Amino acid sequence: MTAPTAFAANHAPLPLPFAAGSLNGLSERLIVSHHENNYGGAVRNLNGVEKELARLNKDTPPFMVAGLRERELTFRNSKTLHEHYFGNLGGDGKRSGGIESVLSQTYGSSASWEEHFRLTGLGLGGGSGWVILGYELDTGALRTCSSGNHTQVLAASVPLLVMDMYEHAYQMDFGAAAARYIDAFFANLKWDEVNRRLQSAQRASKAWKSAT
Amino acid sequence: MTAPTAFAANHAPLPLPFAAGSLNGLSERLIVSHHENNYGGAVRNLNGVEKELARLNKDTPPFMVAGLRERELTFRNSKTLHEHYFGNLGGDGKRSGGIESVLSQTYGSSASWEEHFRLTGLGLGGGSGWVILGYELDTGALRTCSSGNHTQVLAASVPLLVMDMYEHAYQMDFGAAAARYIDAFFANLKWDEVNRRLQSAQRASKAWKSAT
Amino acid sequence: MTAPTAFAANHAPLPLPFAAGSLNGLSERLIVSHHENNYGGAVRNLNGVEKELARLNKDTPPFMVAGLRERELTFRNSKTLHEHYFGNLGGDGKRSGGIESVLSQTYGSSASWEEHFRLTGLGLGGGSGWVILGYELDTGALRTCSSGNHTQVLAASVPLLVMDMYEHAYQMDFGAAAARYIDAFFANLKWDEVNRRLQSAQRASKAWKSAT
Amino acid sequence: MTAPTAFAANHAPLPLPFAAGSLNGLSERLIVSHHENNYGGAVRNLNGVEKELARLNKDTPPFMVAGLRERELTFRNSKTLHEHYFGNLGGDGKRSGGIESVLSQTYGSSASWEEHFRLTGLGLGGGSGWVILGYELDTGALRTCSSGNHTQVLAASVPLLVMDMYEHAYQMDFGAAAARYIDAFFANLKWDEVNRRLQSAQRASKAWKSAT
């Protein structure tokens, strides 16, 4: 297995996995701007930061290292989370499959999980952040987590379902009405993809926990 | 597969995986305090937060949800990162095995990686945070990331090597001399464990990326 | 002098100091939404948080206190910064008066300051935060500072000029084109108010530094 | 009035305002290390950051500006807050004077304020941050605020009383026993200085709010 070079600065954005104008209640203009400017901008900035990181040496003041590392984490996570966000849109919002039973085991019912997840999103309304249904690889637990910026995520986890709560994800279409955006987000969720991620996560968890 | 209940509040601390007084240059008093007070405290607080989260309902003000979610992420990540931190200590600091070649592929040489990693740690000296050599499951890339608090980690990654840079990890033994702590940390690294994690991470990455 | 009670929860929003539709290149719809939803929301949330803070007692888990304090700081600062933001809009963007010479003393020229200030704003584009020209009361220095959320400001300072870089300040009108928003912001700056604040800040600094 | 140049990089640390070994229950070793390494380090780093900021120009990538601005705010606030922290130590901990009645008006009783303030400090135990009794210049209100790092403070306020909760403020003497540090902090508080700041703040507030 070959490991990608640390500071190659050659990240390229993935195309949208659905037609930009095909979502129900989220406009083409919003989706195109989000994908090109915010996701695309993160990818471009990550390349820029990697070029600067490649120049670090023993004489670099530690505060420069700390500042660049924070920027690197910001853009790298923004890239990853946006990819999983767009990846779980483009569906019909109908929940079924394995995720249904795992949500029920974890939260009592999948409706109860959804209520928690929506409330968590509302808590970020008017600001910035992500709400993520993550799968903890050490424990096999599903956990909803929330972050105020790109850097904050659940340690040692993979994202099963990702909702962008930055204002660029909804202001153009909904103004400040974050609750209406959350409705539209749920209406376009691609649960097949969430189920696919769940199965991959369960296998990844087994692999991660196994002794060699 | 049964998923752990979301708000069971039954987390228990893991014992230290080595004798508290057995490290070279990190005192028993420091290690015991770190394990009991900081790691143990995070576990106790996580249970406390889960009890509060279990009480959320549609009438809870969103700002309460946001505040609790931030605390939950703080303690959950602190628990996870501390477990991997203690888990990669107790060795003789001699690097060998698969990690050596992957670090070379990624950073030119493993010595160059180590310089980067130490610099990143120095950038957090006198404050708080973690430095983590993470394995990105989407890309198979090794990446050094740095955080100023428990909430900030690399998305969709597992930690191969974790260094605590909170002052509770070194002040008792080294005062403000963070560089001397970093030396001691490296002298006690258990590279066998890092290699074991690397192999598990490579298999987990394959599983995560596979279609079902 | 009577000090306001700590948890009275009776904050009320100030009206806009100009007609919502009177700005040049910033739409009435944007300004009304910003004022009612984001500023107004912060004031309502601050009242909500104060009610919760009033219930704290010795048995409250410290993590609840920390979570609420973070929310309190967020909404209190959002209130204060929004008031000074709207307060420095509604002008014709023509810079003159005392601020001109103080900016020149500090940055070489006021044009050089403006370039720095705009660059700092661009650094927050696509995210959230504030750019503030602050007056340090201990030193009498003007300093441009930047924050990624409401909680981060220059210690012991007053804001002379405040620019909101949250996406709710521009997405509706400009989409992701943050640079065009910054142009519009500067075109509507009310430099009379900035000059008034400068003079008040200079007197306040003298008072703060004096022995009794 | 001459304004200090923005990027002069000529900040110098203030000496301790009391003999390092004269505090009751806070060791000379702790105080000297705190003053030389943490406060002194912040001053040195602030100078370093100002030198980098002086080099910014229109071609600097905005992410570099954002990273440096965050570091600047960190070190500038650390400098300011440490100066007021050391400035309010060296006393006998006996509260009297004007602050007593203002705390009573605000919190019902000064004992109730103290309980709140201590609880807020405990909420930061094991991590990093500051607890500050601030005076809001816009409103004349006293407010206790808490921050997890150097950047977070109450907007448009001056600090009447500052407690450092970074672990470097207590680990050497108390290990993880943050509550015992808070006791020692209160035992050494110099309330004369707090009263002096209160009077200056009241005059500064009047000046700040006055029309020109």
Main beta-sheet strand count, sense and barrel state of chain A: 3 strands, antiparallel
CATH topology type of chain A: minor pseudopilin epsh fold
Percent strand of chain A equals: 5-15%
Structural class of chain A: mainly alpha
How would you name the oligomeric state of the polypeptide chains in this document?
A: homotetramer
Main CATH class of chain A: Alpha Beta
CATH superfamily of chain A: Iron/manganese superoxide dismutase, C-terminal domain
Residue runs with pLDDT of under 50 for 5 or more positions of chain A = none
The helix-strand sequence of chain A is: HHHHEEEHHH
Pair with the biggest interface: A-B, 76 and 76 residues
Shape, principal axes of CA atoms of chain A:
globular
Domain module tally of chain A: 1
Q: Helix proportion of residues of chain A, in percent?
A: 40-55%
Q: Mean pLDDT of chain A, nearest integer?
A: 95
Compute the number of helices of chain A: 7
Task: Please state the CA-atom Rg of chain A, rounded to the nearest Å.
Answer: 18 Å
Measured distance between first and last alpha carbons of chain A: 17 Å
Q: Widest sheet of chain A: strand order?
A: 2-1-3
How many beta-strand segments of chain A? 3
Question: If classified by CATH, what would the architecture of chain A be?
Answer: 3-Layer(bab) Sandwich
